[in-house]
Amino acid sequence: MNHDAHTLREFDAALSSLNTHLLQMAYKAQSALDLAAAGLLQQNESASNQAIAEDEELDELEMTVDREGLHLLAFFSPVASDLKVVLASIRMSSMYERIGDEAVTIAKRANKLNKRPRIREAAQADPVYREMAEQFRAVNKAVSSWDGKALAELVPALETLAEHAAAMTDTFTRLPEQYQDNLISVADLIFVGRSMERMAEGLQKVVAEALYAAS
Fold first, then answer.
1. Considering only CA atoms, which of 122, 118, 107 is closest in space to residue 33?
2. What string of pLDDT tens digits covers the 215 residues of the chain?
3. Which domains does the chain have, with CATH numbers?
4. Does pTM top 0.90 for this prediction?
5. Which among 57, 103, 187, 205 has most CB atoms closer than 10 A?
């Protein structure tokens, strides 16, 4: 048996498994956003609870990506281009996990908000969510093929998304004067806004890492 050919097949299989698990993380994080948003905007408690319950799967996938990435580094000494993919995958898995954590925060806040009188300005999260969901899908599609051109084209749109999320949070911070009798809900909305800001920043970091790998 050709030892080099055997080793190459093992490496290709290990790298493919790493990419598969990273993409599973990507789409689970995207799903977590959708579920948390449904909890917030549609007052769908079961969707919020699902986002919270499925977070453990993201945590487990992150550990899997870390383990597989370290195995690739330790046993195969990948060449420069593959090395960048492995290193970027490990870092991206952490970013996707953090995005999932922010979705859990939104879901938990949504469950609390939905038990109190509704603050009409909560609806301002809807256009930001829709923009984020669209960009999330585009990011994950580009990551799935390490498409450097598509990733680079997403950078300006993600900068705009981050600005919109920050503006939404700023709007929420101006609400207390109008809702003196429901300040706790205002605080929950501010936390939601900050979580969406961090999710937008997380997508920017994912794209930066994927561009590093694709270059």
1. 107
2. 444 655 889 999 999 999 999 999 999 999 999 999 999 999 999 999 999 999 999 999 999 999 999 999 999 989 999 999 999 999 999 999 999 999 999 999 999 999 999 999 999 999 999 999 999 999 999 999 999 999 999 999 999 999 999 999 999 999 998 899 999 999 999 999 999 999 999 999 999 999 999 98
3. 3-214 (1.20.58.220)
4. yes
5. 103
